[in-house]
């Protein structure tokens, strides 16, 4: 197992394409997109129950073992999150190589 | 008047809408899975687009079609401008722009329900009104964003992507499907209709019932959210203020569209459809585009206004009342 950072980004479903482009541009080694997340935050209740996805969030998960790339991703997504709303969490993790 | 009102009230689609709303108020766990609701909405857009196309193929394309489509486009461009001016002093700027876009655009499901109402009442309507509906969906989104950018003094809009907005507003799934189905219906005409009639015609009202059941659930939840938001003391208008605006704008816009329909001398069914298009507010295309183009706008303001107030108002009161007025004045 190799130590790495686990980056989780919760953002509106509508912004998922833009976020995916941003992550790739910032050098993320890859990402997993979990659609149709729901919950509540400072921009109100996100029920995830409408047909357009306008009240639905999604979650990006990125595993990255390069400190510089992690810093670049965190700085890069900050501007996007300040406009769209959302959360970025960074935590220590272990990458199971296979 | 009473006859039209009670006939509408006793129709299965409207009763299923209220069943959905009742499920929320009595805290039932009734729920339509989102993906199934999405499928139902796609079916309705496909069916109404195809039926409109077939009707278009059966009638001549003349000056009146171009005139009606131009009037629809003009309405969809004027409404967001005056709505923005009316609400901008009472709401935050981004919310005012989103409300303007919401009320300038239309609700396809309200149109579909009104078409179903006309069918059950035996009142004919023209296929090109489906094209009018598709045309009226997008301009308000672009105008709403333009109004916001002209009034906004901050530099927050500098990261704005026009290409993305145009794609989202003009090529979003619902507009694309309506126009595509309309064209296919137009090209294949009555022969095409004979091939898929059981799917497009026979199932239509039943599917509408199921979709309106889901809309009743979602609308009642948004109404609750609106109340909760008001209790929490959010900025701008309280719930009563937003409900008043939602009703006032619906009636004002329907009045404008209805006047245009009467001035143009549209037949009864077409006049009602244009009136209800004018008086309806978007809760599918606009919120999706606004979340992308104007995330500063609070969806807790414009979404409940259109979905929880204007939509049920049009279904329950707007359609039969406007119909009766058109009969009296036409």
Draw up the topology in text:
The complex is a heterodimer of chains A (98) and B (330).
Chain A: E1 2-12, H1 16-25, E2 32-37, E3 39-41, E4 44-46, E5 57-64, H2 67-84, E6 87-95
Antiparallel strand pairs in A: 1-5, 1-6, 2-5, 3-4
Chain B: H1 2-9, H2 12-25, H3 34-58, H4 63-87, H5 93-104, H6 108-121, H7 128-137, H8 139-151, H9 162-170, H10 173-202, H11 204-231, H12 239-264, H13 268-279, H14 285-293, H15 299-329
Can you walk through the features of this model?
The complex is a heterodimer of chains A (98) and B (330). With 98 residues, chain A is α+β, with helices and mostly antiparallel strands. In chain A, 29% of the residues lie in helices and 41% in strands. In chain A, strands 2-5-1-6 form a 4-stranded antiparallel β-sheet, covered by helices on one side. A two-stranded antiparallel ribbon of chain A has the order 3-4. Chain A is globular. With 330 residues, chain B is mainly α. Chain B is built from 15 helices and no strands. Chain B has helices at 2-9, 12-25, 34-58, 63-87, 93-104, 108-121, 128-137, 139-151, 162-170, 173-202, 204-231, 239-264, 268-279, 285-293, 299-329. Chain B starts with a helix and ends with a helix. The model of chain B has no long low-confidence stretch (mean pLDDT 89). Classes of the chains: A alpha+beta (98), B mainly alpha (330). The interface between A and B is medium-sized, with 20 and 26 residues.
Helix content class of chain B? over 70%
Q: How is the biggest beta sheet of chain A arranged?
A: 4 strands, antiparallel
How do the SSEs of chain B run, as a string of H and E? HHHHHHHHHHHHHHH
State the helix count of chain A: 2
Give the helix/strand class of chain A: alpha+beta
Shape of chain B: globular
Strand content of chain A: 35-45%
What oligomerization state is this entry in? heterodimer
Number of strands of chain B: 0
